[in-house]
Amino acid sequence: MTRPITAGVDGTEESLAALDWAGREAVRRGLPLRVVHAWRYAESLATADRDTQHGWVSEGVKEAVRAVSERHPGLEVSVDVVEGEPAHALARAAAEAELLVLGSRGHGPVIGFLVGSVGQQVIARATRPVVLVRAGDQAAAEAAGRDVVVGQHGDPEDSAATLRFAFETAAARGATVRAVRAWTLPPVFAYSPGSLKLLDDAGGLEPYERQALAEALRPWRVRFPGVPVAEHVEMGSAGQVLLSMAGRAQLMVVGRRSHRLAVGSRIGSVAHGVLHHADCPVAVVPHD
């Protein structure tokens, strides 16, 4: 089954930027574009029944889609207007997509779309990659020689899904993958005889981290021999090190494990921090 690139739209400037991004990505990958709008019947509009309101919403979505179709005349586009709670509807749409693209509001530490609302809920629930795009995102950034920046951590299998997505995206764009691994000094009690031997064999902490990054990248270099790769290893928190790379990124790719809480789900701290502060589109790839 061919999975589409799916864009969630709600008529805002942010969602229209996400729709543009999704259209370009669908063309690059040779995939269809699916546009999804989730809406709720407004009983307060007593003069308009459910069918009438559905018609209003559908026409607004189709108007946005017309612009994308005009820019990409060969692109296969479908539109689904579904009634229901947005986070549930978009998470279902993500499950059927190659990736889901959403808009995110604001720059800096305050982003209303993400904090405690639809975007964060969808990211925490989605079983497929979700890309967040800010209003004002321009295609020019993708053609300016910027990299696909991806965070790598742990053993090779821990970040396999994240690296796969980064390499696939870079291959479609003719871009460089910049793989970033951050490390910190562990507490002394965390060392075991086995881990100390590994560090000694590698020549110290930083060489060990460089070796670990190279090992994680090895199968993806083989699978995507035409994709240039830059390796970056730096001491510091993962979120801060990744954000220091945002200025050279056309896309930032991070992994996430969702954390199930009594009051719902939340994403990991690194993904949360990057989503709050990066000024480029961010892809969050589930790996749990």
From TrEMBL:
Domain UspA stretches: 1-134, 149-286
Annotated transmembrane regions: none
Record SUPFAM superfamilies: Adenine nucleotide alpha hydrolases-like
InterPro entries tied to this protein: Rossmann-like_a/b/a_fold, Universal_stress_UspA, UspA
UniProt family annotation: Belongs to the universal stress protein A family.
Protein name per Swiss-Prot or TrEMBL: Universal stress protein
Species whose genome carries this gene: Streptomyces roseochromogenus subsp. oscitans DS 12.976
